Amino acid sequence: MSVKIILFGKLADIAGGSVSVDNVADTDSLINVLHKDHPEFTKTKYLIAVDKQVIKENTVLNKKSTVALLPPFSGG
Amino acid sequence: MSDQNLYERYHRQIILPEFGEEGQRKLLKAKVLVIGAGGLGCPALQYLVAAGIGTIGIVDDDTVALNNLHRQVLYSVNDIGSSKAERAAKILQGLNPEIEIIAYDERLNNQNAVILFDEYDIVIDGTDNFSTRYMINDACVLLNKPLVYGAISQFEGQVSVFRNKNEEDVNYRDIFPDPPKDGEVLNCAEAGVMGVLPGIIGTMMANETIKLITGIGEPLIDQLFTYNALNNQVYQLILSSRKETRSLIPKDEKEFLKIDYEWLCAAPVQQNEIDSNTFNSLILNGNIDVIDVRELHEVPSVNEFNHIRIPLAQLADNSSSIKSENVIAFCQSGKRSLQAAKILSGIFGDTKKVYSLRGGIVQWKQDRTKQPV
Predict the structure, then answer these.
(1) A17 has a chain B CB within 8 A of its CB
(2) Do A10 and B185 touch (CB under 8 A)?
(3) Chain B residues touching residue A75 (CB < 8 angstroms)
(4) What are phi and psi of A3, to 5 degrees?
(5) Closest to B162 measured CA to CA, from B143, B180, B188, B182
């Protein structure tokens, strides 16, 4: 099972645009895999949204899930 | 001004059925405070002034610089060095002399935030740093002021509206509870920004403000709108409030006044930071390696002194090329070079003296133009 992942800002730069992660049951396991593949991810804060809904705790993923990771921006 | 004139100026929006004379009256009665007259603030201000917001306050302690002009198109070369708040107010008054525009040529802090916010109906955050953004958010929650939020980085922008009417309403801390530390997120001066981007995002902020005041349409309440100028991707996230957020916001005005927002976002003070003068004398002393830790494509290029280029990410692997007893790292603004100094101090311990140039090469070049070398 592979979920769609959308990265914003610095996270997209770190990952070189897009990432794909297979066989993850929930957001916690997805984040674990991403942190292992891209250790730089651990150095920045970001929000996690599943199907556009910003989540507060571990959330079950299905094969149609889209996960978005978005860091804060300060520029003005 | 006569009603006939008013009618003519705003005719094209008054004839919108949803808007009408009622909408125009609401705008003319409204008081909006715009914080930051930069990339986001300028376009937001231009449309708010044109639309006929009755009273507009502009807070900014910065002056116009040449490198602002690619995105802050309200200003011209003649404005360089002048107060942004005062110049913006003057220029915008020419666009619409019928409304009141007040310039506050000062930096927003806990004290003046409380006083200023009290006098306005809506606050617009067009600032460029996290400490001010968190301060604005907390003050708006405390004072129940609607906040129109926008932020940009490189090619991407975010917009949201925080209603702040009651405790359950979403605010910025529901999205990002704690401020990132200095250097964790690059600002426009370090990461760069596409000039058109703040024009788009700032204009959207003006649009959200007008919708809030007139009550038309669906403002971005409980939503975070994101836009990517490179691929035109738009993504709209749905936000919800968290119980824990309330504990992060000061309980009352007294507690708010005590918070040091600069400190919340600041990197710990480093002993090994040096200013441009010390930098220059250390170079003259010799026995020194100067390292540019910026990425290889970054400008301005440096040809005023000898140095080597090792981007921050490759520094640890290439530390063996550093031979001298003294090492100075520099970058664009002095943030990454602090990280570099930390890495190098870890590697070399007491065998070398490691410094970081405060304010980066941008500050050094500015200092250099001020005094003959």
Answers:
(1) no
(2) yes
(3) 39, 128, 151-153, 187-188, 191, 193, 198
(4) -95, 155
(5) B143
The structure tokens listed for B36 are 């930051």
pTM: 0.78
Instruction: Give the list of residues 6+ apart from residue B115 with CB closer than 8 angstroms, or none.
Output: none
Chain B residues within an 8 Å CB radius of A73: 151-153, 156-158, 185
- From first to last of its 373 residues, chain B has per-residue pLDDT tens of 567 777 899 999 999 999 999 999 999 999 999 999 999 999 999 999 999 999 999 999 999 999 999 999 999 999 999 999 999 999 999 999 999 999 999 999 999 999 999 999 999 999 999 999 999 999 999 999 999 999 999 999 999 999 999 989 999 999 999 888 766 777 767 788 999 999 999 999 999 999 999 999 999 999 999 999 999 999 999 999 998 898 999 999 999 998 888 777 765 545 688 999 899 999 998 899 999 999 998 889 999 999 999 999 899 889 889 999 999 999 998 888 988 888 888 888 888 899 999 989 998 998 888 765 4
- Chain B nearest-CA distance from A27, in A, is 17
Place of tokens 């101090």: B345
CA quadruple B356, B359, B364, B367: dihedral sign = negative
Name the one residue in this structure whose structure tokens are 């770190």: A14
Per-residue DSSP letter, A37: H
For residues B284 and B45, give the distance between their C-alpha atoms in angstroms, rounded to a whole number: 48
Q: Does domain A2-70 fall into CATH 3.10.20.30?
A: yes
Query: Contact B160/A72 with Cβ under 8 angstroms?
Result: no
Whether A44 contacts chain B with CB within 8 A = yes
Burial class (CB in 10 A: 0-12, 13-18, 19+), B342: middle
| Phi, then psi, of B292 in degrees rounded to 5 | -90, 110
Domains in chain B: ranges and CATH: 3-265 (3.40.50.720), 273-370 (3.40.250.10)
Predicted-complex ipTM score? 0.94
- B-chain residue closest to A53, CA distance: B238
